[in-house]
Amino acid sequence: MRVVLVLSPLAGLHERRGAGRYTKYLVEALRNLRDGNEYLVTSRPWAYHPDVVHYPFFDFYFLTMSSKNLATTVVTVHDTIPLIFPREYPAGFRGKIKFLVQRRLLSRAKAIITDSVSSQKDIVRYLGQTREKITVVPLAAPSQFRQASRMDQDRVRRKYDLPKKYLLYIGDINYNKNLVGLITSLSKIREATLVIVSQALYTKDTSEAEVIYQTIEKEDLSERVRVIRVAVEATKDVAAIYSAAWWYVQPSVYEGFGLPVLEAMVCGTPVICARAASLPEVAGEAALYFDPHNSTSLSQVIATVMRVTDRKRKAYVEAGYRQARQFSWRKTAILTRSVYQKVCVL
């Protein structure tokens, strides 16, 4: 079986975001199966006469699919965020036209993959697809992520000027990430310090970044919120920053999966997590939950973890290890391959 994954998610901004990372890790895991199949990555799939074409990213407002040979096409739809929050993710006139084309092509594709049961339900609701057509294939923390040594933790503290005890958020700053809610909640807990690792926030060149910095200033938190940038290739640094954190916070009002939750867990950092969308599927019973629509709820959880005993914190660390072990890229690859095989048979 020859499978071609279309290159587009690895180009431009998507390379360092979730879609690009998903494509990279999936291809590596598929090839590591050593099952005699070919797994190719290219921007010209039909030149290789594939048995299956896999689009690992579906854009709602840009044309990312071809109308050719849709009977052998698999599409990954990670989430439906732009459709759930249309005011925050406006399509524009051209985007609306392209969305109609994309939705029609998706309906003609043979199979859809998504990251969570939550996203599966939303694809049925917002894109009009049948549940039977959609296979849930969870993701996993990359193998490069593991608990860093004390020496590495001390190294990143010096390199990035990190405080001794900090809460951590890593990721993008889009509306669904709820960083304004996190910062507002932080203002009520004097002893809490937050480190944000985000290229988008560090560069300060988007309207979302402007709103977040205004919130930091309004809440008088410039001394307690640190924004840093870490190079894409510096995986060892990111793992050490996770490991050195007191707790990791995932404040999102919506996620299609929530990979940083698992990354934190495998790095030995306990997790505070919003009870929203896919996040309970990912974090299971290993996180402390809060209502992302209620800043008081998050403030109360932050206050709790800032005063938690080492013994209690260690229990959450161990629970996180157990939860993260349920996910692996090998499992992701095997489940994805089964979708390919079904498409070939059909």
- List the strand order in the largest sheet: 2-1-3-4-5-6
Report how far apart the termini are.
Answer: 14 Å
Residue share in helix: 40-55%
What is the chains' assembly state? single chain
Question: What spatial form do the alpha-carbon principal axes imply?
Answer: globular
Q: Helix- and strand-based class?
A: alpha/beta
Q: Mean pLDDT, nearest integer?
A: 94
**Tally of DSSP β-strands:** 12
What is the CATH topology classification name of the largest domain?
Rossmann fold
Whole-number total of structural domains: 2
CATH class of the largest domain: Alpha Beta
Question: Treating each run of at least 4 consecutive H or I residues as one helix, how many helices?
Answer: 14
Name of the CATH superfamily of the largest domain:
Glycogen Phosphorylase B
CATH architecture classification of the largest domain: 3-Layer(aba) Sandwich
Order of helices and strands: EHEEEHHEHEHEHEHHEHEHEHEHHH
Strand content: 5-15%
Description:
The protein is an alpha/beta fold. It folds into two domains: 2-141 and 328-341, Glycogen Phosphorylase B (Rossmann fold); 150-324, 3-Layer(aba) Sandwich (Rossmann fold). The chain contains 14 helices and twelve strands. The strands form two sheets. The protein has a six-stranded parallel sheet with strand order 2-1-3-4-5-6. It has a six-stranded parallel sheet with strand order 9-8-7-10-11-12, with helices on both faces. β7 (167-170), α6 (179-186) and β8 form a beta-alpha-beta unit. α10 (259-266) crosses α13. The longest helix has 17 residues, at 92-108. The radius of gyration is 20 Å and the shape is globular. The relative contact order is 0.14.
